[in-house]
Amino acid sequence: MTELRSILDEAVRQELISPEAGGRLLPFLTERGVVVAGRGVGVAEALPAMAAEGQVWSDTETPRFVRGFHDVLITIGVVVALGGLWGLAALYAVLPAIIVLSEILVRRQRLALPAVGLTIALLCWTFLLMSFFFKPVTSAFNDIGAEATQFVAGFPIILGLYYARYRVPLALALCIMSALALVLTLLLRLMQWASGDPQFFSNHPLLLAVVFLVCALGLFATALYFDLGDRLRRTTRSDIAFWLHLGAAPALLFSVRLLISFDGNLLDVAQTVSIKTPIIVISVAVLMLIGLVIDRRAFVTSGLLSLGFAIYGIFRQGSATVDTYIFTTLIVVGAIVLIIGTGWMPLRRIVLRALPAAISQRLPPAVLAATP
């Protein structure tokens, strides 16, 4: 009954039902034998009964922001309409359109995919607004001034207000990411001010990389906090964690990239030195293992681009032609994706069996869907 009550409480928080209806539904459903799978027993013990009844165990990472082609059609309309308005009207005219569409599509009709599209539109609008008033961070993160902090500060405020009104998980995830980015700029400015050197991070690139790594680990820890609070992924906490993991993986990889880049050329991701490419490949492999343990394909997917650049660098060091190492990179990355994708659950069961029970019991279960 505890898990059933938590599900009804979540429905009340999302304003799908009223608090009074939630209170009446709990005894009504309980009296008719409606229970949550795994109630009172472990997940492993509940699965045989589910399989015997022909029930299907749903994937714990099913994206809830895609519910049908109706949402896709509405989202296409939102993108086209806002794109046209953006081209014809001033920047300030786009925000009222986003708010009106959010009131209709998100707050009233509860459409998930349009909510994601409108949140991304608000993010782009905020970026253009902040760029109009403030300069973004300078090249190679040198001489970080007040405008860099002011540029970042607008994102958590605007996205936080949007989440408070419309409860879109992506909005909260972006608010958290931008808040961590604000903390990062404040830390960098504080260190730069304490050193008295405007070019402090050019002279100490390793320290810059360590600060980036700490903030990236903070983002990953925040994603795990939301994940572990919803082990079976039935609430919006799982959706928030999904987006946070999608941002945490590239942030961690970028931090590793900074740690092994001491020439100041931070943006040339295809540049390779003999030691850099193997380290990046190992880092991506570690992130894939972490994604496998926590059952987050999104975490693995975010690292595939960096893996592609790393493998590209390996073949580039050889004597192959440009076409050869480009297409070979595509084949290798595609094969890795297929192997991980098709063998995800068997690989998870192997990995979880190697972990202590105290850890594995807090993670999503590694089970295959039962055949109906």
Describe the structure.
The C terminus is likely disordered. 29% of the residues are buried. It is globular, with a radius of gyration of 23 Å. The protein is an all-alpha fold. It has 17 helices and no strands. α6 runs antiparallel to α7.
Report a brief summary of the structure.
With 372 residues, the chain is an all-alpha fold. Helix content is 72%, strand content 0%. It contains 17 helices and no strands.
**Count of DSSP helices?**
17
Unreliable sequence segments: 37-58, 263-274, 368-372
Could you tell me the strand content as a percent range?
Answer: under 5%
Largest sheet: none
Radius of gyration, in Å, reads 23 Å
- Report the mean per-residue pLDDT as an integer: 77
Structural class: mainly alpha
- In helices, the fraction of residues equals over 70%
Tertiary shape: globular
- Amino- and carboxy-terminal Cα gap: 26 Å
Number of strands: 0
Write the element-wise H/E pattern from the N-terminal end onward.
Answer: HHHHHHHHHHHHHHHHH
Oligomer: single chain
Reconstruct the topology from this structure.
Blueprint: H1 2-13, H2 19-31, H3 43-52, H4 69-88, H5 91-108, H6 112-133, H7 146-166, H8 169-195, H9 200-203, H10 205-228, H11 236-259, H12 276-294, H13 297-302, H14 304-316, H15 322-342, H16 344-353, H17 357-360
Helix pairs in contact: 1-2, 4-5, 4-6, 5-6, 6-7, 7-8, 8-10, 8-11, 10-11, 11-12, 12-14, 14-15
Task: State the main characteristics.
mainly alpha, 72% helix, disordered C terminus, 372 residues
